[in-house]
Each structure stands twice: as structure tokens, then as C-alpha cells.
Amino acid sequence: MPAFQTVRGMRDLIGEEAEAFTHIITKARETALLYGYKEAITPHVEPLELLSAKSGEEIRQRMFIFKDLGERLVALRPEFTASIARLATTSLKNEPKPLRLFSVGTVYRYDEPQRGRYREFWQSNFELMGSAKPEGDAEIVLITNNLMKSLGLHSYAFKIGHIGVIRGILSQDGVDEKTQNAVLQRMDKKEYEAALKLVESDKCRSMLEGLIAIRGNDWLDTVEQLQTYLAGYEKAKSAVDNLAEVLKLVTQSSELTVTVEPAFARGLEYYTGMIFEIHIPGLDIALGGGGRYDKLIEAFGGEPTPGVGCAHGIDRIAIALQTQKTVIDAKIGKKVVVVPITETMKSEALKIAQQLRAAGITVEFEVMGRKMAKSLEDADKRKADYAVIVGERELAEGAVVLKELANRQQTTIPIEKLGEKIKS
Ligand code: AMP
User: Fold this and answer.
1) Å from CA of 78 to ligand 1 middle
2) Domain that holds residue 357
3) Which residue minimizes the CA distance to atom 20 of ligand 1?
4) Same domain, 249 and 379
5) Cα–Cα distance between 207 and 169 in angstroms, integer?
């Protein structure tokens, strides 16, 4: 039989890599707690209809779709927002607003696999529903900043835009929504030429061309440039005013680096307002992103409810931590192997192992029935700090032998002092 492999685009995470993921998830969960977000665990499999309702052509084409045995057309979730919108329009319909919901788990997209791009990947997701105010947008940006900071990442920058700028220009020119979506999709992929080709009017095209050229590190300066540039385009201009308010709130309350890019678009179709992504130098893929979606809940059959949210790519954050050589404080203390000298000592040795674990010490018990020398050799390979050797003679006096593996020094020590000694 051939050796089995993972399905293309799916990965195993083992040991340190898995620990890095768990660490990021823990930090995301801590962030959720700090900002008052309740956790929601939703199914990986949802009705296709729900998932394809508002996600946009881009994602629709990349979903894992299948029929279950009951002939239901279903798909693996490509993101969390649709599931959360389902909750907001059903079981959480009558909850007081705002709703603050956090989720973490795997999502699935048939992307072309490469470093940082997988078909099964992890996201931490935050959704704030019920607020149309810029402080709502600010909260989502600050959550992302908080997570990056708490992970010890540095030099990261926010790229911020507002979907209303491009839509404002296009709709003033009478471009229909479907074409607007197609333009935005191409702009998202930075296929500007292809995007501009979809626009018939010369004036509108040149407005977009000009917009693509505007960007800068000084957000206030970029915003002022935009306000002048968009004279006569009231909708687009009010989008810029809204963006300015959000930026004022985040920059005055926190330290963060922002670049305003008015021609920046995102693949998901449901955005209606501020959009952002987070990047670090040397990695040309976004670590996370999000934005405002004021029409989504309505599209799912709920009461009109504004919303704003973000998703962080845990796989990519793990790469960023590695790139920046950020040390993960995994809080793993000393590691001990417990070895019974003879068969008859097994239960006693196991009891001691349990006592050490109860004291918070990592214990690997000798489960292979090996002789002492072999067991100690293996303990070295496993990078254990101590071996606890349980023998009849010492045990009769309520003691065991504690061997420090780095220098091979050993002492006989009363069992009740063992935990304390290892921890010191
Ligand atoms: P989105 O749901 O498209 O807004 O994506 C949010 C974040 O998920 C991105 O910024 C990435 O960090 C991450 N992400 C998106 N697609 C992939 C993928 N194929 N593999 C790994 N991470 C991804």
C-alpha cells in the first residue's frame, strides 16, 4: 500500500508548530475576553446557500461543496461571518445590541497552495454587530492591534481604505452593482488595468486612475489630498470623512502604524465601509483583515443591523512570529521521566508521577518497560531535565532517587520534597 499523505493544501501541525498555533489561539481568546467578546462555536459544515449568499464570486468559486447523504447541498465554511450572521438573525436575534462575538477554528478555501496559503487554515474572528458608529470600526482595528502586540510582533502596519470611495465614484457614473463588484475584485488583486477596462466612461476611469496613485504614510495628509481630489463626488467624499473619523479614534487612543490606500479593495463582497489589512515587512501576504458590512444582516433576512468585523490568519501569524524570531513563552517548566526499577515498583512509580503532575510538572512515564540505562538514554533524547528512579530500597524509606540529567548527579530525596526540589 502506498504511504498516505495529507490532501493537497492541508497540513499536519506537530510539536512546536502546534504549540505556536495554540499560543496564538490563546492570545486571541484573551483579547476576546479583554474586549468583551463572547465565544461562538459554529459548525464547519453549513448550507451552501448560507455560505454563498454574500461572500462574493471570488470565494464562491473556491468552496469545498458536497452533497451529504441526505442530498443536502452543503459546504465547508470558507469564513466565519456567514455563520455569525446566521446566529444574529436566529438564536441571537433578540439579544441586546451590540453583539460582540468571537470564533476560532479552521476554514476551507480551494486556494493555490503556497507558503502562507493553504486550503485548510485557521482564523480567529471578531464580529461587532449593531453599531454603525466609527467607534465600532475603531474597536475592530484596536482588537487586531492588541492581538499583534500581545504576540510580540513588531513593525507591522495597517493598510486602511474605505469601500465607499471606489463605489462612490462608480455609482456616480451609473456603473451597476455587478460591474462594481467585478471592478473591486480586480482591484483587490491589484489587477488595475483589468479593473479599469470594465469602466466605460473616460472620466470615471481617470478618476480611478488618480485614486490608485494616492497613498501615503501620513494618514492625515492622504485624507486631506483625497478630500480635495473627490470634490463633486459627495458619496465618495463622505466615505473619506468617515474613514478620517475612524483613523482619528484609533491613532489618538493607541500607537499604531497606518497607511491609507483609497484604491485598496477586499475579496469579500459584503463590505460597505472601512476595510483594512495588516502586514509585516518581508511578508507580502496579509496577516489579517476586515471591515464594515452594514447590509449583511438584512441580506440574511434579519432586521437592518450594521456590523464590522475582522479575521486573523493564524497560519500566517505563525510564519510572522517565526520570521521575526519571536520567542513563544510556552510556560513549560521542567520535564521529568519517572522510571520504576522493577515490575513491582510500577504502581508506586505511577502514583509519584501523578503527584508530580498534580504539582504542575511535566512527567513522561516509562511505558516501554525498558531497563534503567536504556530509559535514561531515551530521556536525554527527549530533553528531559530529571529522571525520578523508583526503587524498592529507597521507597521503603519514603524516598526516590532524583537524577539531574545534564550532569548525571543524583541524590536520594523524600517523596514529599520531590516536587519542590524539581521546581526550584
Ligand atoms: P479574509 O477572510 O479573506 O478576509 O482573510 C482573512 C485572513 O485570513 C487573511 O488576512 C489571511 O491572513 C488569512 N487567509 C486567507 N486565505 C488564506 C489561505 N488560503 N491560507 C492561509 N491563510 C489565509
Assistant:
1) 10
2) 335-423
3) 117
4) no
5) 8
Average pLDDT over all residues of the chain: 94
> How does residue 136 score in pLDDT terms, banded at 50, 70 and 90?
very high
Cell numbers given for 380: 536525554
Residue bearing the CA closest to ligand 1, atom 8: 313
Report the separation in Å between the CA atom of 118 and the middle of ligand 1, taken as the mean of its atom positions: 9
Residue 353 pLDDT = 96
- Mean pLDDT to the nearest integer, 16-31: 96
86 C-beta closer than 6 A to ligand 1: no
Share of the chain above pLDDT 90, in %: 88
Q: Does any ligand 1 atom lie closer than 6 A to the CB of residue 158?
A: no
Atom 9, ligand 1: residue with shortest CA distance? 288
Please state the domain count of the chain: 2
- Nearest ligand 1 atom to the CA of 118 is 20
Domain boundary (298, 323, 348) is at 323
